[in-house]
Amino acid sequence: MFGGRGRPDLRISQSLGAFAGPGEEISPLHVFFGVSNTGSEEVEVSRVYVCAKGRSVHEGGFGGAPTLPFTLAPGASIRFHTRARALATDLKEAGYDGRPRVRLVVEDALGSRREKNFRFRVDEYLRLKDE
User: Fold this and answer.
1) Residue 45 forms beta bridges with which residues?
2) What is the spatial distance between Cα 130 and Cα 18, in angstroms, rounded to a whole number?
3) Which of 21, 34, 81, 128 could be a cystine partner for 30, CB 3.0 to 4.6 Å?
4) How far apart are CA 95 and CA 6, in angstroms?
5) Which domain of life is it from (predicted)?
């Protein structure tokens, strides 16, 4: 369940970034996602994926994500990531290019879902050097 009085309320965030490495090195570009339970009850997250036009295009393989299903207590949050180029590849293979509108979808054990819409630069991120 999402939102409402006495029920879990998940907030989802999305950003781009990289990890700092040894010396002055940085990692390839990643897409970071955050899920926070701002409600008063715990929520069991059962599925997390990126979709475009209602169709899943990237599911699983998120770095830093706990094994599904997992429970988020009130006030708890998680952060996970995927390489921007990997997501761009999945979108391209699904027939998308340019800057399609995509969304991160988080579903709970009861089938309720919360979504975060964002635009993603498929062609630009496919050109990234991904070392």
Assistant:
1) 70, 108
2) 12
3) 81
4) 41
5) Bacteria
CA atoms within 13 A on the CB side of 54: 0
Backbone angles phi, psi at 86, to 5 degrees: -65, -45
Q: Please, what is the Cα angle at 24 between 23 and 27, to 5 degrees?
A: 105
* Beta bridge partner(s), residue 84: none
Give the pTM: 0.89
Strand 43-52, strand 70-72: pairing = antiparallel
- 8 Å CB contact between 73 and 107: no
Provide the b/e sequence for 69-95 (b: ≥16 CB within 10 Å): eeebeeeeebebbbbbbbbbbbbeebe
Domains of the chain are 10-126 (2.60.40)
pLDDT in tens, 33-86: 999 999 999 999 999 999 999 999 999 889 999 999 999 999 999 999 999 999
